[in-house]
Specification:
Strand content: 15-25%
Number of helices: 10
Shape: elongated
Distance between the termini: 62 Å
Structural class: alpha/beta
Length: about 260
C-alpha cells in the first residue's frame, strides 16, 4: 500500500510516536467513543483498539478502506468510507466523542472547522498537524501568528501543544515539521456569551486586515464616527484575547440594535 499524493498521505512509521498519540487522550475522555480521521494502514489504529473503547474510523481512500477491512476485523461495521468533511458525524454518534488522527495537512484547518460545527459533541481532539498550523491554533494574543483559527478554536477549546515530530518519522517524509496538539472543550459556563454569527464575522473581518486598527475594520459593521473614535478601537486584532473579542461583539451588537 503506497501513499498517494492525491490524498496528502504521509504514513507514520514510528511505533513509539503512534502509541504516544493514543496515550495523549486525557483521562476525563478515556471512556468515550473515538473517531479516528485518516487511519491509513492503521499505525495509530492498533493502539486505539488496545484501549478497548468503541472506535470508528473514517477514510477517504477506498484502497485503504479495503486494507483496514482485511487487517482490522475489530473495526467491522465501524469503517466510514468517505470524506470526513462531507460526512454527517452526528449520524454516527449519539453523544459525546473524541476525534483523533494523523490529519492530512492539506485539509487540517477544514477538519478543525468541522470540529467547531460539532462542538456540542466533540469534547476532545488529539491530532497531528503541520507544526505551523499547530502553533497557530495554540498561539496567544500578541503573537504574530495569532489569528482567526486561534480565536475561533480557543473560544470553545483549551489548546495544549504536546510535542513535535520530525519528517523522518513518516513515509514519505513530508517537507515540513509536524506537531501534536490537544483540544479540550471548555466548561459550559466558560462558553462565549455573545451572538456567535456576529462574533465569527468580526473575527474574520478584523484579521482579514490585521494591520489596521479596529476602528477602520469595524466601519463595515458600525458607521458611527463618535463610537469608532473610542480609544479601545485603536488596537489591532492580534492584541485582543477571546474574551475581549466577545466583549467587542456585544458592543457592536448593541450599536446595531440602536
Amino acid at each position: 500500500m503506497k501513499p498517494k499524493k492525491s490524498f496528502g498521505q504521509h504514513f507514520l512509521k514510528n511505533e513509539a510516536i503512534a502509541e504516544r498519540i493514543a496515550m495523549s487522550i486525557s483521562e476525563t475522555s478515556n471512556d468515550l467513543p473515538m473517531l479516528e480521521v485518516g487511519p491509513g494502514k492503521g499505525m495509530l489504529t492498533k493502539y486505539l483498539l488496545e484501549k478497548g473503547l468503541p472506535l470508528t474510523v473514517v477514510e477517504a481512500d477506498h484502497d485503504m478502506v479495503e486494507f483496514l477491512k482485511e487487517n482490522f476485523h475489530q473495526l467491522h461495521g465501524n469503517i466510514i468510507s468517505g470524506d470526513v468533511l462531507r460526512e454527517p458525524l452526528e449520524a454516527y454518534f449519539d453523544g459525546n466523542f473524541v476525534v483523533i488522527g494523523n490529519f492530512p495537512y492539506n485539509i487540517s484547518s477544514q477538519i478543525l472547522f468541522k470540529v467547531l460545527d460539532h462542538k456540542d459533541q466533540v469534547v476532545e481532539v488529539v491530532g497531528m498537524f503541520q507544526k505551523e498550523m499547530a502553533e497557530r491554533v495554540a498561539a496567544a494574543p500578541g503573537n504574530k501568528i495569532y489569528g482567526v483559527i486561534s480565536v475561533l478554536i480557543q473560544a470553545w477549546y483549551e489548546v495544549e501543544y504536546l510535542f513535535g515530530v520530525s519528517p523522518g518519522n513518516f513515509h514519505p517524509p513530508p517537507k515540513v515539521q509536524s506537531a501534536v496538539i490537544r483540544l479540550k472543550r471548555r466548561k459550559i459556563e466558560d462558553n462565549p456569551d455573545c451572538d456567535m454569527d456576529l462574533f465569527r464575522k468580526i473575527v474574520k473581518v478584523t484579521f482579514g486586515q490585521r494591520r489596521k486598527m479596529l476602528r477602520n475594520t469595524l466601519k463595515s459593521f458600525v458607521n458611527d464616527p463618535e463610537w469608532l473614535a473610542h480609544p479601545s478601537l485603536t488596537k489591532r486584532p492580534e492584541q485582543l484575547s477571546v474574551a475581549q473579542f466577545v466583549e467587542l461583539t456585544n458592543k457592536v451588537n448593541e450599536r446595531l440594535k440602536c
